[in-house]
Amino acid sequence: MITLSKIGKVFQTKDGKVTAVDDIDLTIDKGEIFGVIGYSGAGKSTLIRMLNMLEAPTSGNVEVAGKKMNGMSSQKLREARQEIGMIFQHFNLLWSRTVSENIAFPLEIKGVNKADQKKRVEELVRLVGLEGRGGSYPAQLSGGQKQRVGIARALANNPQVLLCDEATSALDPKTTDSILDLLVDINKKLGLTIVLITHEMHVIRKICHRVAVMENGKIVEQGDVLDIFRRPQQNMTKEFVKQVTEPEETEEALKHLFDNQDIGRVLQLTFVGGDAQRPLITDIVRNFDVNVSILQGKISQTQHGSYGSLFVSITGEDTPVNDAVSFIRAQQVEVEVIHGG
Ligand SMILES: Nc1ncnc2c1ncn2[C@@H]1O[C@H](COP(=O)(O)OP(=O)(O)OP(=O)(O)O)[C@@H](O)[C@H]1O
């Protein structure tokens, strides 16, 4: 659905050249929810804005829904953009227009007649869960409701692709989740391809099928979300994974425990999918002469199954402890010895 080939963007500034996006190749499939994560300045906004030519690339090609986007005439670009909706962190609504009038805006531009506009707006209001609010003005809505208007407006012309530029970054956690649920719902109902950029791994975990990690204008790692959680390769990716699997308190709490001489060996076990339901700890205690204490554990859901992280301490004689660790490794569970190894 989307192919980026050797795409690059260099900005000329008073202080010299800034390479925001550096020679990126990327393919995004039809119907998938693809996330790009990175810290501020990594080049995410520039990358996503090149998908609909809000930002023109300085090198490479962008193809969306079978059309080469760069080098198009402005007339052709206007048509091609009908296939690509976009939502923004600060919603970008027209404040003097009602909810319905905001949603109708792209239909007016396309020249859709009033009766069809009204029908389509009603459908969209229902789709995004804003029944009864069509006559309200943006200032009368909560942040989550404003983003729902943004989504409805972006979908007005039935696009094939929805671009989300930090769409939940201005929202509280509960509202973020309700907007993310809506995006999954739309993806499933309409088969829409969704590309989002974010600095929050929670967003990636909750709704994305695949993810790319960006640093200094480059994609440093990409893959299925569950695989990335299970085996992050780059340090940057590990940091992002930790955002959801290891709250800061865990690190603090574990550090305190390490001061205790009897803590034994502390392991972080990572389970994926069906593994998360297996009675691994029971098996260890039954088969080896060791004691196991569970220090902390968490199971999270991704679009492709569950993902769990468990911190345990194992105490006992060296040999049975070593055997127990080898046993865990043989069960396809990722094991990291974080203390006492
Ligand atoms: N219009 C511009 N002119 C000059 N430099 C720019 C411009 N837009 C972005 N940059 C630079 O390009 C780099 C990437 O910026 P970009 O906004 O794409 O990153 P980002 O990952 O989206 O970060 P943020 O979330 O903070 O926006 C930064 O160094 C930024 O300063």
Automatic annotation (TrEMBL):
SUPFAM superfamilies: ACT-like, P-loop containing nucleoside triphosphate hydrolases
InterPro entries in alphabetical order: AAA+_ATPase (IPR003593), ABC_transporter-like_ATP-bd (IPR003439), ABC_transporter-like_CS (IPR017871), ACT-like_dom_sf (IPR045865), MetN_ABC (IPR041701), MetN_ABC_transporter-like (IPR050086), NIL_domain (IPR018449), P-loop_NTPase (IPR027417)
Keywords in alphabetical order: Amino-acid transport, ATP-binding, Cell membrane, Membrane, Nucleotide-binding, Translocase, Transport
Taxonomic superkingdom: Bacteria
Organism whose genome encodes this protein: Alkalicoccus halolimnae
GO molecular function: ATP binding; ATP hydrolysis activity
Gene Ontology, cellular component aspect: plasma membrane
Name recorded for this polypeptide: Methionine ABC transporter ATP-binding protein
PANTHER family in the cross-refs: AMINO ACID IMPORT ATP-BINDING PROTEIN, METHIONINE IMPORT ATP-BINDING PROTEIN METN 2
GO BP annotations, alphabetical order: amino acid transport
Protein's UniProt keywords contain Nucleotide-binding: yes
PROSITE patterns: ABC_TRANSPORTER_1 (PS00211), ABC_TRANSPORTER_2 (PS50893)
Residue ranges constituting the ABC transporter domain according to the UniProt record: 2-241
Similarity remark: Belongs to the ABC transporter superfamily.
